[in-house]
Amino acid sequence: MHQLHTHPLPATVDPAELAGSTVIVVDLLRASTTICHALHAGAACIIPFLEVVDTTDAAKSYDRCQLVFGGERNGLIIPQFDLGNSPAEYTADKVDGRIVLFTTTNGTRALHHASQAKKVLIGAAVNAQAVATTTSAAPGRIDILCAGTNGQVTEEDLLAAGAIAHRIYQIRPKYEWKSDTATTSAHHVWEELVKAARIQGCNESDQLAHRLIATQGGRNLIDIGKADDLPRCAQLDTLAVVPAWDRQTGQIRLR
Q: Among 10, 92, 137, 218, which residue's Cβ finds the most Cβ atoms within 10 Å?
């Protein structure tokens, strides 16, 4: 029987437990969504780093014209960086054919936490169907790893995890999976959102955007003037991209 596990935070799972698994890293607001947009816009690859100094050290190996420095600390663009962490910033004219050196407060840390996994993919609302289809093709064990915010569980990541689980169950019936309690809970929360959308007469993306306003990550973005990113990050299945992180090269590329 296939296994599907959800981890509300990196701290809730030992990295060694992820060995042999396909891990879907989720940081809905906003690293996962931004990575999807950057690759869709033609970025050659994205290299995730834990610290700002790591990006500047890595840059010494490249011509500056090849690079885009992207990321945030506390939601805001890092001084001297080219781009922040809004998916709207990663357009073709800025990233096409270029290497993005990327560091964020939570998302890139979650990625590195999964470094022992067999495969590491990046999941968000925008590519929920694509990543679910890819992982369900040869499932084995799948772990959805939520980034959280500063060590705290965030509802937005669990909603995205529930959306991905929902699509996985649509491809392979729920009874074929051994799902843990966290996955069952995230899936239930997502199903409740879908029901609420039907009652309100709106689509699921709009309902998710409305829900994000009340989440911790949503409130944080509103507080720093980034509210426009909420509906962007809430768009479901708009990008048919599956970013995959190669731990050997350190690069995230389209699978």
A: 218
In sequence order, what are the beta bridge partners of 144? 6, 24
**Mean pLDDT, range 33-52, rounded to an integer:** 98
Kindly give the pairing relationship between strand 251-254 and strand 243-246: antiparallel
State the DSSP code for 152.
B
Overall residue count recorded for the chain in this entry: 255
Q: Name the pTM for this structure.
A: 0.98
In sequence order, which residues have a C-beta less than 8 Å from that of residue 100 and are 6 or more positions away? 38, 43, 45, 46, 47, 67, 68, 69, 70, 83, 90
Tokens of 109: 């840390």
- Local structure of residue 68 (DSSP, 8 states): E
Residue found by looking up tokens 């990233």 in the block: 95
Average pLDDT over residues 202-229: 98
pLDDT at 1 over 90: no
What are the strands, taking DSSP E only, across 42-189? 45-49, 67-73, 76-77, 99-103, 119-123, 141-146, 177-179
CB 146 within 8 A of CB 29: no
